[in-house]
Structures are given as structure tokens and as C-alpha cells.
Write a structure and sequence with these properties.
The protein is of the alpha/beta class. The protein is built from five helices and 39 strands.
Length: 370
């Protein structure tokens, strides 16, 4: 998988190392000393590659694979060729991810695009800014007055860190990001092109036009949050915009002013939260979900892709549709609409004639209604 050379930090593992890391059970006679240096899908894997299988549709591919080792459930274990090191485990993909993280740690977060160590030439750091030990600042980055950057953090090329911003330890702020009016915890990843802390969209409208409302709050991002490329998080109006510990936000999302997002939430690509939305812990928003202002999405609730939310979502509920409602009711309405459309299509395909009493009878309700 790493033929391009973009990820060259793989140190390799033995099959025995993989067994120790994942808890997988090797097939009898497996050579635990066999070296595994890379990862690959079943159909492309070679003798030094680890692969996995978790779905029936790939069973035929498993039977032909040339992989050095394969993580698999008991269900597929006997399908692998005899020369493959078969490692049985209940959740093969989760085990595969654990190995991938060990082999390619640099793929987990943005790294210096310039190979910088410390502050690179061409970066501009204000004399009053405080950089802890091990901070990396790439060329073109600007760090403003009294900003504080924690130990081991990366500020990517052309990123801008505004005055008084606080960023914790082991964070990665990707290339081209702007972070202002914000306090960020530890181990936070902000991918390239994000804008954090710009003012929210607040106006008073009248016949004379639109009067801008000052946005004087902050953005507060807790530990272990990840924000995907091109996403925007507006600072609060008077309250803070808050993103809770462990929450993961995908690419191209919009988080409006005063939003409060709980712990360990998932917000998928192109979703947008209007101002003052509350998303409680462990909620999941599918791709392109939209939420109007002042809505609460309850703890553990799940919203299907392209949902548009106009009312509060109860904790643990599964909703979808436009406007969003319970999944069961949404599906009933979708099925009913399809049945109605199919019925009308069948009627349209049957030509009506004067000799057809059924056609005349079918028209009677419409005539009576008119």
C-alpha cells in the first residue's frame, strides 16, 4: 500500500508481534517469525503483507490471496491457502486497524510538510508568544502575540494562530488553517484548510439593511478532538462554542456560533449546525445533515444522511428525512409514496376506453370530488 513513498515509517512486525498486539489465534503450524512489513487488500497482497477479511463477498478472493498473513474470523479461516498465516479473531478489521496504527503512526495526524524541526525559516513568531519544548512551526506560519503552543505540537505551513490563542500539547494544526479566539486542549487534530474562531453569522435585519451583531465569545475545543479538512467552527456570540472531548468532525462541516457539542460525537461530511444547537454525548450525524437554530439532539441519537432537523431529537432516537422524524415513520412515508407512485404509473400505462366500465368507475371519485 505504501509504494508511493508518502509513508515510510513502517518498521515491520513479525506474525508473532501481530498475535501479541491483537490477541489473534494463529492457525496450527503458523510461522510466527515470518516478517510482515506492509498492508494490502487481499487481491494485491504479497508474501510480506498483512490483509484481512470481514465480509462474505470477499471469500473467493481470500481463497486466491498471496498475502503473508490474514486476519479473519473463524467463519473464513479454512478458505485461506495453506501457505498463508491465518490469524483468527472475532473482529478482524479492528485488529487490522491496530496493526496499521503500529506500522504507520505518521498517517494518524498531519506532519511537517517541510521536514521542519523547531521553528522553520520563513515562519513568523511574535516575541511574546510562548512555544513549549518540541513545537514544530513550518514555513509561512504566523503565530500572534501572547499565543501559547503546548509541547510537541505542530503548526503547519501558512497556518495563522491569532493573539491569545492557547493550543495544548501534541496537537496538529494543518497547513492553511486559521485559529483565532480559541482555547484548544491536548492531542487535537485540525486538518488543513480549517477556520476556527471566526465570527458567527449574526445580524439584525430591518428595512434599512442588516446590522452586524458583535460576536465576543470563544471556541473551546477539548482533548482528543479531530476536525476534518475545510471545516469551519464559529466563535460564540456571548456564550462559547464548545466541542467536547473525543468528538470527530469530518471534512467540510459548519459549526455555528454558540453550538455546544458533547463528548465522542460523530459529525460526518458537509453537515451544518446553525447557531445555538446542542448535540449531546455520543450522537451521530450522517453526511449532509442540517440543523436549524436552537435545536437539541439528544444523547446517543443518530441522524441519517441528508436529514434536515426542525425539532428536538430525543435521546437514543434514530431519525431521518426532510423534515427529520423517527426512522420508522420516515420509512412508512417513503414506502407509501412509492406505492402511490407505482399505482399511478400502472394506471397511466393502462389506456382507458369507452368500452371499459372499470376505467369509468375508477374516474367516478375524481368526478364526484370535482
Amino acid at each position: 500500500m505504501s509504494e508511493s513513498g508518502f509513508f515510510v515509517d513502517s518498521v515491520g512486525l513479525s506474525v508473532g508481534d501481530i498475535v501479541a498486539l491483537t490477541g489473534a489465534e494463529p492457525r496450527d503450524g503458523t510461522d510466527l517469525a515470518r516478517s510482515i512489513s506492509d498492508l494490502a487488500p487481499l487481491d494485491r497482497a504479497g508474501i510480506a503483507d498483512l490483509s484481512f477479511i470481514a465480509e462474505t463477498k470477499y471469500a473467493g478472493v481470500l481463497a486466491q490471496t498471496r498475502a503473508g498473513a490474514v486476519l479473519t474470523s473463524e467463519r473464513f479461516a479454512e478458505l485461506a491457502p495453506a501457505n498463508v498465516a491465518v490469524l483468527r479473531i472475532a473482529k478482524p478489521y479492528e485488529a487490522f486497524v491496530a496493526v496499521a496504527r503500529r506500522l504507520y503512526p505518521s498517517a494518524l495526524r498531519p506532519t511537517s510538510l517541510f521536514g521542519s524541526i523547531g521553528v522553520a525559516p520563513g515562519a513568523i513568531v511574535h516575541p511574546s508568544a510562548k512555544l513549549a519544548a518540541g513545537v514544530t512551526v513550518d514555513p509561512g506560519a504566523v503565530i500572534g502575540p501572547r499565543a501559547e503552543i503546548g509541547a510537541g505540537s505542530l503548526i503547519g505551513a501558512n497556518a495563522v494562530i491569532g493573539p491569545h490563542v492557547k493550543i495544548g500539547a501534541d496537537c496538529a494544526i494543518g497547513a492553511g488553517c486559521t485559529v483565532t479566539h480559541s482555547e484548544i486542549g491536548d492531542r487535537v487534530i485540525v486538518h488543513p484548510g480549517c477556520q476556527i474562531g471566526q465570527d458567527g453569522f449574526g445580524y439584525i435585519s430591518s428595512a434599512q439593511g442588516h446590522t452586524k451583531v458583535p460576536q465576543i465569545g470563544r471556541v473551546v475545543i477539548h482533548d482528543d478532538v479531530e476536525i476534518g479538512a475545510g471545516s469551519n467552527v464559529d466563535r460564540g456570540g456571548m456564550r462559547d462554542t464548545v466541542i467536547g472531548q473525543g468528538t470527530k468532525i469530518d471534512n467540510l462541516c459548519q459549526i455555528g456560533h454558540n453550538c455546544v457539542i458533547g463528548r465522542h460525537c460523530i459529525i460526518v461530511a458537509q453537515s451544518g449546525l446553525s447557531g445555538s444547537v446542542t448535540v449531546e454525548d455520543f450522537a451521530v450525524l450522517g453526511a449532509r445533515t442540517g440543523v436549524i437554530p436552537h435545536i437539541t439532539i439528544g444523547k446517543g441519537a443518530m441522524l441519517a444522511s441528508r436529514s434536515t432537523v426542525y425539532s428536538n431529537v430525543p435521546a437514543g432516537a434514530v431519525w431521518g428525512g426532510f423534515p427529520a422524524q423517527s426512522k420508522r415513520q420516515w420509512m412508512r412515508e417513503v414506502v407509501a409514496l412509492r406505492q402511490l407512485a407505482a399505482r399511478d404509473q400502472d394506471r397511466a400505462a393502462t389506456p382507458a376506453t369507452s368500452a371499459s366500465p372499470s376505467a369509468d368507475a375508477a374516474d367516478l371519485p375524481d368526478q364526484a370530488a370535482s
